[in-house]
């Protein structure tokens, strides 16, 4: 059993990433403004069919790309998305990684997302893609501190960096109520982490898709999988840190984790259809003048409340 | 077995298509966004079929061929043209399938895509020789020539060089790039030579403007009715919003708007709903406010239409038309003249146009009607103003400003040649 555990853990993580990406694609279609769907096509089949098109295509070359870095980027992003997933406890003392300092591991993964994203923009030797990479850097420098701070806010009352204890500590009262600033700031920053919706400037339409502009075929499929994986991983961690994780009546813990993750995922996905992507400069200003002070306030208020 | 299953699934997908918009096909290509069988993509790398819509001007052949070769294999070209003689680029690709302009292009796209994915159609080879634009001569570790600490300048390639910064004193590399004429985030036909300094526009020059727009959709006998003119105006503004929303990264709201534009029963109140949605998206606060401001002096007397009225200049041919005055027409103006105000101006004018159309009855326009996006001279003036409006701003802001001007480069170019 123990010998098989790593194999099983990898299979479960990979399966969750693929299913998660599929769920993101389906939600994206279901939550679009009514009247904007193309209609007449099966919402359930279309994402798979799109993936099949990418599998059927062959890769396009650009002039003198950095092949190694370009090939590495989707793998690295998928790896980071997997890292986010494995720290999530689905029941008391049950998570794939079983590490005692899940917050640190998750924080490290979020801080590193900028690396594959920049590589994806830089490697194809194409200026529009490179601009996407630049934008991701500006964005990452801005979201990473507020993101870390609100997570620390959840670790304070549990007196632990272990997600398992953070969940256990939310017995009776979830962190979303105890620290009302936490979840909104968290959601805003992970939108930037996944370069998604309102913070999708690195993949902006004004640069033809930015970091995505040169990606094609299987590479594009893996890259999109990685992006959806980050969304799913960050939603699962959000559900753990703010929505009480496996706590909940009647249903078993893992189901509660899935339901809460889906709820956050739906929120993040919907934002794409209703909020215009922020200008890169606009987000930098917003992050440093609004998100960061709010995140600090969140930590101070939580700390003060614990001292009382 | 697995390969066949994947091919079968791929054939069922909505066709990812990258359109090259030629003369007179802009509205038709926009309607494709509403076709459930088709998915219009932002990059040729994400498409299986290249759609050449209408005749492409001869001097864009090479650019079109470049886009063709950017599609991943297996790829195919579909010509969407009035007569086979117009075949894309007189045969952009010899294997291209051709559909007449009035034909069902959606069905043709599905057929071509299906054949490609199932392997029944071999897919097209490159149109241009697959070689570097300038030969690499094998000197230095990457064949880039030169010696020295940075390896010297690559042969024939502009090396990123430093230049004075325009904004905050942070000196970055400047890199030149030609953008257009077939990118979805610029008006069709517009080609720009942009020098980037990081994400900032260091210099910008209009190097090409080609006739691609739709013209003369009001060719009736005698002067047109006010109802027809104003409906066409509302339609034009809504289509502009539909296009600009895609540029701003809101493709679903864009599709929703285009569906609204196609609705024959559209009422002024429907535009209130559109405006609410746009306001809630943050478009007028975070994305366009204070960008590309035009003063009243800059826009007076140039025939800029809505752009001038957004800067508070009440120039409008309809003010001199007794038929309009009898309807109680008063031109709408706004103060501020930035990109956000130009959006609001067009929304307000579209609503006013629908109201006028409802009240006009059988009245006809006397004289030539006010065009929805200004006169050809106005369009030329806007092209002149572009460098002034965009240099020193971030590229995303520059694109937002460009979008807010509702440029029709073809209009400027065609009449410009006639005039000169």
Structural write-up:
- The complex is a heterodimer of chains A (308) and B (420).
- Chain A has 308 residues and is mostly helical.
- Chain A is built from twelve helices and no strands.
- The radius of gyration of chain A is 19 Å and the shape is globular.
- In chain A, helix 1 crosses helix 10, helix 3 packs antiparallel against helix 4 and helix 10 crosses helix 11.
- In chain B, strand 3, helix 3 and strand 4 form a beta-alpha-beta unit.
- Chain B is globular and about 70 Å long.
- Chain B contains 16 helices and nine strands.
- In chain B, 40% of the residues lie in helices and 12% in strands.
- Chain B is an alpha/beta fold and 420 residues long.
- Classes of the chains: A mainly alpha (308), B alpha/beta (420).
- The interface between A and B is large, with 54 and 59 residues.
Form type of chain B: globular
- How large is the radius of gyration of chain B? 23 Å
Structural class of chain B: alpha/beta
Strand content of chain A: under 5%
Shape of chain A: globular
The H-and-E topology of chain B, N to C, reads as HEHEEHEHEHEEEEHHHHHHHHHHH
Helix count, DSSP H or I runs of 4 or more residues of chain B: 16
The low-confidence parts of chain B are 414-420
SSE order of chain A, one letter for each helix or strand:
HHHHHHHHHHHH
Percent helix range of chain A:
55-70%
Give me the side-by-side strand order of the main sheet of chain B.
2-1-3-4-5
Helix content range of the residues of chain B, please?
40-55%
What ranges of chain A have pLDDT less than 50 throughout 5 or more consecutive residues? none
Structural class of chain A: mainly alpha
Cα distance spanning the termini of chain A:
48 Å
Mean pLDDT rating of chain A: 90
Span between N and C termini of chain B?
65 Å
Number of helices of chain A: 12
Largest interface: A-B, 54 and 59 residues
The tally of strands of chain A reads 0
Measured on Cα atoms, how large is the radius of gyration of chain A?
Answer: 19 Å
């Amino acid at each position: 059993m123990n010998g098989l555990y790593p194999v099983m853990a990898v299979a479960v993580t990979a399966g969750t990433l693929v299913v998660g990406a599929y769920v993101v694609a389906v939600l994206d279609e279901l939550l679009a403004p009514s009247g904007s769907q193309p209609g007449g096509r099966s919402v359930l089949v279309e994402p798979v069919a799109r993936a099949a098109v990418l599998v059927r295509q062959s890769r396009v070359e650009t002039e003198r790309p950095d092949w190694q870095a370009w090939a590495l980027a989707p793998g690295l992003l998928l790896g980071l998305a997997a890292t986010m997933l494995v720290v999530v406890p689905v029941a008391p003392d049950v998570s794939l990684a079983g590490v005692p300092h899940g917050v640190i591991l998750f924080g490290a993964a979020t801080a590193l997302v900028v690396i594959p994203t920049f590589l994806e923009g830089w490697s194809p030797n194409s200026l529009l893609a490179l601009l996407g990479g630049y934008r991701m850097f500006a964005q990452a420098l801005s979201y990473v501190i507020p993101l870390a701070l609100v997570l620390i806010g959840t670790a304070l009352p549990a007196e632990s960096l272990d997600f398992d204890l953070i969940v256990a500590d939310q017995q009776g009262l979830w962190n979303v109520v105890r620290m009302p600033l936490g979840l909104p700031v968290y959601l805003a920053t992970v939108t930037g982490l996944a370069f998604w919706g309102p913070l999708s400037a690195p993949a902006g339409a004004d640069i033809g898709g930015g970091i995505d502009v040169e990606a094609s075929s299987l590479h594009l499929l893996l890259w999109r999988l990685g992006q959806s994986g980050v969304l799913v991983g960050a939603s699962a961690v959000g559900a753990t840190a703010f929505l009480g994780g496996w706590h909940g009546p009647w249903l078993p813990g893992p189901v509660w984790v899935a339901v809460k993750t889906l709820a956050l995922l739906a929120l993040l996905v919907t934002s794409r259809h209703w909020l215009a992507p922020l200008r890169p400069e606009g987000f930098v200003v917003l992050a440093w003048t609004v998100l960061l002070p709010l995140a600090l306030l969140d930590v101070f208020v939580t700390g003060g409340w614990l001292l009382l | 077995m697995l390969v066949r299953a994947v091919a079968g699934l791929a054939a069922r997908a909505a066709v990812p298509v990258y359109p090259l918009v030629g003369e007179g096909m802009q509205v038709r290509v926009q309607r494709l966004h509403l076709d459930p069988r088709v998915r219009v993509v932002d990059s040729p790398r994400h498409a299986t079929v290249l759609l050449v819509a209408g005749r492409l001007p001869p001097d864009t052949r090479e650019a079109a061929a470049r886009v063709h070769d950017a599609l991943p294999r297996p790829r195919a070209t579909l010509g969407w043209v009035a007569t086979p003689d117009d075949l894309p680029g007189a045969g952009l690709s010899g294997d291209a399938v051709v559909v007449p302009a009035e034909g069902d292009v959606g069905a043709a796209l599905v057929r071509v895509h299906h054949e490609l994915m199932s392997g029944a159609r071999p897919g097209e080879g490159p149109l241009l020789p697959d070689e570097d634009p300038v030969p690499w001569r094998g000197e230095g570790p990457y064949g880039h020539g030169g010696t020295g600490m940075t390896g010297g300048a690559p042969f024939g390639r502009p090396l990123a060089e430093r230049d004075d910064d325009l904004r905050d004193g942070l000196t970055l590399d400047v890199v030149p790039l030609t953008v257009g004429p077939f990118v979805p985030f610029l008006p069709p036909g517009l080609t720009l030579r942009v020098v980037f300094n990081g994400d900032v526009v260091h210099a910008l020059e209009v190097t090409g403007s080609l006739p691609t727009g739709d013209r003369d959709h009001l060719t009736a006998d005698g002067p047109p009715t006010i109802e027809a003119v104003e409906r066409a105006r509302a339609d034009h503004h809504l289509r502009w919003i539909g296009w600009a929303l895609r540029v701003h990264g809101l493709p679903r709201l864009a599709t929703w708007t285009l569906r609204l534009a196609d609705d024959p029963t559209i009422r002024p109140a429907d535009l209130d709903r559109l405006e609410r949605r746009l306001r809630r998206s943050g478009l007028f606060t975070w994305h366009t406010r204070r960008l590309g401001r035009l003063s009243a002096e800059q826009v007076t007397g140039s025939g800029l239409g809505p752009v001038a009225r957004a800067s508070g200049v009440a120039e409008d041919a309809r003010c001199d038309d007794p038929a309009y005055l009898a309807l109680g027409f008063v031109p709408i103006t706004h103060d501020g003249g930035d990109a956000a105000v130009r959006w609001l101006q067009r929304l307000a004018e579209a609503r006013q146009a629908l109201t006028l159309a409802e009240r006009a009855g059988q009245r006809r326009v006397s004289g030539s009607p006010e065009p929805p996006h200004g006169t050809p001279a106005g369009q030329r003036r806007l092209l002149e103003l572009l460098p002034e409006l965009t240099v020193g701003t971030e590229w995303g802001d520059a694109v937002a400003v460009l979008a807010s001007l509702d440029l029709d480069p073809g209009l400027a170019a065609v009449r410009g040649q006639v005039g000169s």
